[in-house]
Each structure stands twice: as structure tokens, then as C-alpha cells.
Amino acid sequence: MIALGGWISLVAAAACAVAGLAACARPRGGRRVVPLAAGMAVAVTGAVALLEWALIGGDFSIRYVAATTNRTTPLAFRVAALWGALEGSLLLWTWLLAALTAGVAVRTRAPAPRLWRGTVGVLLGLCAFFLLLLVGPADPFARVPTPPADGTGLNPLLQNHPLMILHPPLLYLGFVGMAVPYAFALASLLAGRDAEDWVVVSRPWTLGAWTALTAGLVLGARWSYDVLGWGGYWAWDPVENAALLPWLTATALVHSAMAQVRRGVLRAWTVVLAAATFWLTLFGTFVTRSGVLASVHAFTQSAIGPALLAGLAAVTVGTLAALAWRVPDVRDAGSVASVASRDALMVFNNALLLAMAATVFVGTVFPLAVDVATGQKVTVGPPFFNRAITPLGLVLLALMGAGTVLRWGRSSPADLRRLARTGGLAAVAASAAAAAGLRAPVAVVAVGAVAFVALAQLDELARGVRALHRGGRPVPAAMAELVLRHRHRYAGYVVHLGMAVVVAGIVGSQAARLEVHRALRVGEVIRVGPYALRVDELRAGTYPDRLVVWAPVSVADGGMALAASRDQAPAAVLRPSQNFYRHARTPVPTPGVRSTWREDLYVVLLGFDPGAQTVVLRVVISPLVSWIWAGGAIMIVGGGLALWPPRRP
Question: Residues 590-610, buried b or exposed e (16+ Cβ, 10 A)?
Fold first, then answer.
């Protein structure tokens, strides 16, 4: 009954989507669009609820449930199994898209009817596409001819960390949310309207999707850091790259839309960026779910690859045709007044972000292109991406700082003096880093770029607070009033500051990373950097879903001695472990991490011998890793601040 009810819900949702799309095509069909969009969202919600019911209840007669859960799967991961494999993740994607479509249909009736109908029509067409996939090759309610007594269970990597509950939905919300600005952009071309209208109306949707995508990327990096046991957070994996690509173009879209509204420039670029960002989300979906690229994140090969490829082609051809048709309508109404202006820096900023996106895209698809053309297997690893992206990123940081100081239109001599002063202080910071022992030239330049961005943001905030403080307001009240009154501007400064903190963490963790592999007996003490570590014992524990073996490691630092005996109290005790899941061929490591603002001590249990009472440890010391998570949190706060509704008069 559950499978039949879910399939009927999806068919009903598809019927509503098609009927709504037909209503959008008629000038007088607008009154039926809202209830049809809402009905579609309700029907997809019903399908999600039914699949969740089957997952929680362990209905192994449904193939998806049998493949992603078993009787020992904890409740939280049974719920999260909805996005743990191909069909369920597509259902989640469609559910989010249906909800956003209904939201746009209800909340954006103010613009011209043709723009509104076109936007909702594009979104309904996208919903119909994904719903047809769900009732066809990616049916999440397909039944098993002979239901097993127990299921297979989730991939162990997916149920070994609570971020499985948060990271995929946020990433999908960012991906799916980019469909809204794309729909507005395409509808503006089809309606022949001035592009500025759609940019203003779609701004909250764009910022919301960008914020969700940022949160998804940061949490994904933390998940990689906590689960894979390698001591890193970004490996330039193809699926990681597929998630980064739309973030780069979406960031360019946010800046391009700002320039369009303020100065009437970059109109065509804004339309192209909206389309490119959505295209890249579909590309990421294709890479993850078609099996064409090898990745620890990718699902197995499936029959939906050709359908997704057809969707990519349709988006490309349709957008280019609409853009060619309406080229006169998207010409710039203004021009860049001066090179020393925020206008010009927005253009350079877009160029750099697109260059970074193009580099990542080429490096990601190059192995696939070589395989198709020659049959040879090649890989493009982190060295290529690091060498190619680092200089572009450093220049982008410099533009971020300069764009904060300079003004729209034409900057004053005072602005240029402040720019020079901020640059001078950044140069002092870079020199101090070099004098303190930082030898790598790229790292020294990065310190200067980070300092330049951070100082520019803090100086802007300080100038505004001083102006209000002179009027008699206390500093905290002045800061709150300043940020609330000019929310979008200062939200951007907060995001820039967070990015500077993230880059500082990346530079610190790469420039002075120390890694040691050692085989130790229980009770033996080793010294790694400033730390003394002692393996106290080997322990094992049985849980319903796994067997866990862990080796508690006592840690002393700051010159403290650590004896082989356990009489002295350590500064900390880390518990690295290995998790043996029933259906997994290899164990999943869980590192023990001691994190401070200065550095992380990261210990991984690589192997053990209970008979000989020996263990093999990987010990990694990474400076400033916690700055990455703090900077990511600051960026998310900045995105939320930009989304905060304005105060009503």
C-alpha cells in the first residue's frame, strides 16, 4: 500500500505540474496556477512522507528501503536515508523544487503578469521533468519481488557522522534554489522585459540559495575532515568540484546583479550567470548520479544519466536561443565610469570567478574526455588545482578588499588614500609573517591578501560606527543601527570578513602541516611537534549496528613530560577508533581531534594487533584549521543577515 500510495502521489504531482505549465501558457490561466502549484507541492510532500514511513518502519518490500536501511540502522539515519541513495535523493530534490515553485507562485504576484507566469511556468516545467524521472527510471517505490528478511543498510561513510543529517539537504537546497533566479532570468527574456525587474524580485531567492550552498560546502568539508581519517578537508574530488562550481558562478551572479541594479551594467552577464549556475547544478547532479566519474561521493551507475544529459542540453539550447532573441533587451543602460571604482572591480571580480570556475570545470571533466576519446584512464589531482586556483584566488582577495574601499561610479581622493593606507598595513602584516618564519612566498602573499581584506571590512564598519557615535549613540547601539539600516551592504562586509578568515585557515593548515605515521605498543610514548602522546590501551565495544575498536591516547603539551605509566593526568585524552559495519568490507575510521584556535591535533587509528598490543597511528598537526569552520560560520551569518526582512515603517 505504501508503494502504491507513493507512486500515485508522484503521478498526481506530475499531472499538477503539467496542468500548471499549460495554465501559465494562457494569458487568463494565472488564477489556476497557484492552486496547481500548491497541489503539486502537497502531492510530492505526501510521497516523501510515505517513503519516510517505509524507511522508519523497515518495509523491505520496497527496493530503496532494502538497499539503504536494515534493522540495526539508528532512527536518525533511517530518516536521513531519504537522501542516502539515488532515487531518494532525487525525490528530495523534487520536493524542494516543488516547495520553491509553490513559494514563488504565492509570494511573487507583484511583478508584471507575463514575468510571473513565465517564471512559474519554467519552474513547473523543471518539476515535471524530475517527476517524470521519479515515475520512470528512478522510481523510489519500486518493489522487490521477494522481500528480504533484512536490508543492506546505508554506506558506512554515510552513517558514521551526524552531518549526514544536515549536509546533503543544505547542499540540495542550494542547488535547487538556483533554479529560481534561472527561471526569473529566462522568463524575463521570454517576456521581453527590462532585466532589472527580475533581478530585484529574485534577489532574496538568490541570496537564500547562495547561503544554503555555502553552508552545505562548509559542512561537507567538516564531514570529510571528521570521517575520512586523512586529516584534510578538501581533496578536489570530482563531486566536491561539482558542488564548488555553482558556488563560484552564484557568487559572481550576486555581484553582477548588484552592479546591474546600482549602475545598469552587466545585464547580459547577469542573465548568463543565472543560467550557468543552474546548468552547473544539473551538471553536478549528472556527475553524481550517472557514474561517469569515479568519486567517494558518487552513486552507482543508473539509467537516468541520459535523461539528465538531455536536460542539460535542453537548458543550454533553450537559454541560448532566448538570449539571442532578446539581445537588444539586455544591453547595458550604463557604463563603467572609472577603473578606480567599484563598478570596474565588479567586472574584474566576475572575470576571476569565471576563470576559477572554468579551471575547475576543465580539470574535472578532462579525465572523462580523455577516456571517451582514447580509452585511457587519467587523473587530475590536487597539485593541478592548487597551482591553477591559488594565484586567481589571491588576486580575487585583493579585489574584494579594494572593492570595499572604493565607491560606485568614481572614487574620491580620500578613498584612494584609504586604499593605499590599507594596502600598506597589509604589506606590514605580510612582512611580519615572513619575519616570524613563514618562508613560502605564496603563503606570505596570502597573509598580506587576507590582512588587506580583513582590514578593509573592519575599517568600513569602524567608520560607520564612529559617524553615529559622534551623534551621541553608544558604540553597541551605533553598530546595531548601522548594520540594520544598511543591511545588505554590511552583510556583504561580513561575508568578505568570513572569507578572509577561511583563507587564513587554509593557508595556515597547508603552510605548517606536520604528519607522522608510527607503530606503537600500548603504554609507549612518542613526541610529535610540541605534543607527547601515549597509547593507554586497546578497547572494543559492540553496538547494534557496528563493532568499534578504539585506542585512547593521552596527550601532554607545552613541554610537559608524559611517563609510560598512567599516574600523571594528561592534558587531554583522544579516542581514535575504527568502526566495523556488518556489510562493509573495510572499517571506517573516526579520528580523535583536539582543536584550539591555534592548531588541531588529529590522531587516526590506522591499524591494530590485539595479540601484540600494538597500534598504528597517523598523527597530524594542522595550524588554524578551526579558523576555516569559524570563517564559514561568519559567511553563513552574513548571508542570513542579508536575508533578514527589512523593518516596516
Answer: bbbbbeeeebbbbbbbbebee
